[in-house]
Every structure is written in structure tokens, then in C-alpha cells.
Amino acid sequence: MKLSSLLIATAVSMTLAVHAHATDRGKAYVSNQKGGVTVIDLNTYTAGADIDVQGEEPRGIAITEDGKLLVVATRENGSVSIIDTATKQVISQVKVGQNPEFVRIKGHYAFVSYEPSAKGGPPPAPGSAEAMAVAKEEADDDKEPARIGIIDLKLGKKIREITGGPETEGIEFSKDGKQLIVTNEADNTVTVHSMKTGKLLKTIHTHEYGDRPRGIKVSPDGKTYLATLEYGNKFLVMDKKFKVLRTVDTGATPYGIAYDRKGERIFVAANKAKTLEVYNAKSYEKIKDIPTGNRCWHFTFTPDDKEILLACGKSDAVMVIDTDKLEVTQQIENKKLPWGVVTYPKSMGSLDTVIK
Fold it and tell me: Which residue in 260, 256, 199 sits closest to 227, CA to CA?
């Protein structure tokens, strides 16, 4: 081959390689309560072989800023599995405590909520005989508070804890990184803690607005916080000082909540309404209800913001939703009870954010 032809061929090959890399849409990672983590190629929307997390009932899931480590909470053995995304192998397991659920990562630290007093299973409906019996039992008990275990991912061990309320659920960070905000289902509170010391700074009681706060999300500009109230069929709007500004009505039992990247729209997964609801982030007017499936709790945007992936556990599927059309365009089969989903590159979603 002549040198000129060789140079042309090499240039074309390099151009194609660069183009392929530039158009790579990344990967999604789905935690499945009945088995492992499913990896979805976002270029083809095909699911590869599941990652064995070496623990039962994976739920909370998070990924590091560089995409090298995946951290997954495994309920039955009270630990988190730290996974090398390149090899898809568990490199360490760290004991956290009973019933680990949410996982969030900031820097090289993972924050994991766990619930020593949780009994498992869905809560009874408010006002029901079962709910009153549970309330009486809990009144007679000293309910042990939930905690947020802090894991140093470089050391591979839990280094300290922050005490939350009973049955801590969602975890969020303030935009300046100085505060940790958690939702506490059992006592209907949102609590604000110092990231540095763990000290309780403020408690917001939600009962007058609705019970069972679950999802929690800060706006991209850091000026507003949203908390879903599962047994209020609302989400709560608070300012940056955690003053309650208003509530917004939703469909039945809202859970996962997120802003889009620009902070223009709010998305809410309403479980029993079987919809992903879309709201204007300034006026809070509803834009659309997107019909979805059964037990759809958590979702993420794709890294290019063109679609949303919604984990629908009891529909045995991950729904793919077009963010312009606001409609489901396809379903990816998943019969292992999908719980949560995150992507790399990182995206906005109910479990993660690209906010720095």
C-alpha cells in the first residue's frame, strides 16, 4: 500500500473511532430485587448479562463520578456491594446495618440509609384497622431511629454514621455540599443534617400536608427542595432554608421525583396512579400524565436527556419514555423486579443528579 493510501486509511479509521466514541450514549444500571444488576446499552437498548452483586434483594444503587465503581445496597445481608464496572466484579462488600435501602455518592463517600426497626413489607393504608394496630404497637415501643452509614470508598469501610428519623427513606445533598437532607417515613418528617458533623439542624413535619415523605430532590439552582408525600398524594415545595412554600397535588402514592437538567420541568412517579407525571417547575401546573405500569418507583434521564428510563417492578419492565413527546416508546423486559436505575455518564433522576 502506498504511504498516501495508508495515511488516508489511518485517518478514516481514527475519524470513525472518534465519531463512535462521541456518539456513545452510555449505559444504564438497574438494580433488581430478585437478582443482580442489569446493564443496559443505551446505544441499542439491549440488556446484557446481569452483574452478580453477591447479595440478595438489591435496591439502592449509585455510581461514582468517574463511572468506575457501582455501589449497590443488598437488603438481606445488611451490606453494600462495591462493583468494578470495567470487570463487573464485586471488589468488596461492606457491612452497613439492617435493611439498607437508599445509596447516594458524593466524592469518594457513599451515604447509605438503613433501618434497624423496619419490619419489611408495604405499610398499611392510613386509617385502616391494621394501621391503628401498628401505631399502637409503635407507641409502646422505643422505635430505633434509622441511620445513614458513610462509607469511604477508597478504604472500603464504614467510617461513621448520621442518625436520622424512624425509617429513613430518601437522601439528598444541598447544592453547596454542606447539608444532608433525608425523608423519614415513620414519623412524617424531613430532617436536615450537617454533612461535616451529622448534627440535626432542622426538622420539617409533614403530617399537616401528607404522610410518608419518600422522594427528595433539590433544584439545579439549589433554591428549592421537593419531597413526595406518598400518603398525601402530593409533593411538598420548600425554599433553600426549608420553609414550606406550598404543596402540589399528584396522582396516587407518589415516590420518585426529579427535575430535568435545566430545572424547567419536574417529573414524579405516581405508583398507584400508574403514571409518570410532568409539571412546570415555575408554575407547578401539570403538563401531562404519562401512562406507565405497575410499581414504577425510580427513573433516570439518559445522559443526552432524550429519554427517561423508568423501573416498573411489577410490570417486569423498564419503560423508555421520549422526553419531547412525553410518551412511552418501548419497554425493556426485566422479570427480576427492577427497583432503581442510574446511568453513566451520570444523569438527572430520582436516585442521582448531575448537579455539582
Answer: 256
Q: 221-234 pLDDT, tens per residue? A: 999 999 999 999 99
Contact 186, 210 (CB under 8 A): no
Residue count of the chain, please give it.
356
Q: Which three cell numbers stand for residue 61?
A: 444503587
- Encode pLDDT of 53-92 as tens digits: 999 999 999 999 999 999 999 999 999 999 999 999 999 9
Q: Which amino acid appears at position 308 of this protein?
A: I
C-alpha cell at 143: 422505635
DSSP symbols for 250-304: -SSSEEEEEE-TTSSEEEEEETTTTEEEEEETTT--EEEEEE--SSEEEEEE-TT
Beta bridge partners of 184: 168, 189
Domains of the chain in start order, with CATH, are: 26-118+143-163 (2.130.10.10)
DSSP state of 313: G
- 12, pLDDT greater than 80: no
**Which phi-psi region, left, alpha or beta, contains residue 178 (left: φ > 0; alpha: ψ -120 to 50)?**
alpha
Report d(CA 270, CA 253) in Å as an integer. Answer: 5
Amino acid at 74: T
Contacts for 231-240: CB closer than 8 Å, 24+ residues apart: 231/125, 231/126, 232/206, 233/270, 234/209, 234/210, 235/266, 235/268, 236/190, 236/204, 236/206, 236/209, 236/210, 237/284, 238/190, 238/204, 240/174
What is the residue-wise DSSP string for 43-66? TTTEE-PPB--SSSSEEEEEE-TT
What is the rounded distance in angstroms from the CA atom of residue 67 to the CA atom of residue 99?
Answer: 26
Beta carbons within 10 angstroms of residue 272's beta carbon: 14
Nearest Cα residue to 56 out of 38, 85, 83, 32: 32
How far is Cα 267 from Cα 348, in angstroms, rounded to an integer? 11
pLDDT digit string, tens, across residues 113-132: 998 765 555 555 555 555 54
Terminal Cα-to-Cα distance of the chain (whole angstroms): 51
